[in-house]
Amino acid sequence: MGKEVNVNLNAYVGKTISLKLNGNRRVEGVLRGYDQLMNVVLEDAFEVIDESEKHEMGKVVIRGNSIIQMECGGI
User: Is the pTM of this model over 0.70?
Assistant: First the structure.
């Protein structure tokens, strides 16, 4: 079971965020929701392979235990 975190991301709901994930992966999208385990729902999401290659993903749920870093506004 995951560890609960005390974080308030309400100010970022509806804004574009960038997530650095395990495995040196990066995903960007519009934050639509989150829970106490830092699981997040992104809409219009895409995986950034490098600056010239991006894969569209649509709406996704990212598990909180795979998130290493979160930035608002993209990278």
Answer: yes
Q: What is the domain class of 10-72 according to CATH? A: mainly beta
Q: CA separation (Å) from 22 to 13, 25, 51, 52?
A: 23, 6, 19, 21
Strand, coil or helix: what is 60? strand
Torsion of CA 53, 13, 1, 6, to 10 degrees: 130
For 56-69, what is each residue's pLDDT tens digit?
A: 999 999 999 999 99
Distance CA 31, CA 42 (A): 5
What are the strands of the beta sheet with 53-62, ordered from one edge?
53-62, 40-50, 25-34, 16-21, 67-72
pLDDT in tens, 10-26: 999 999 999 999 999 99
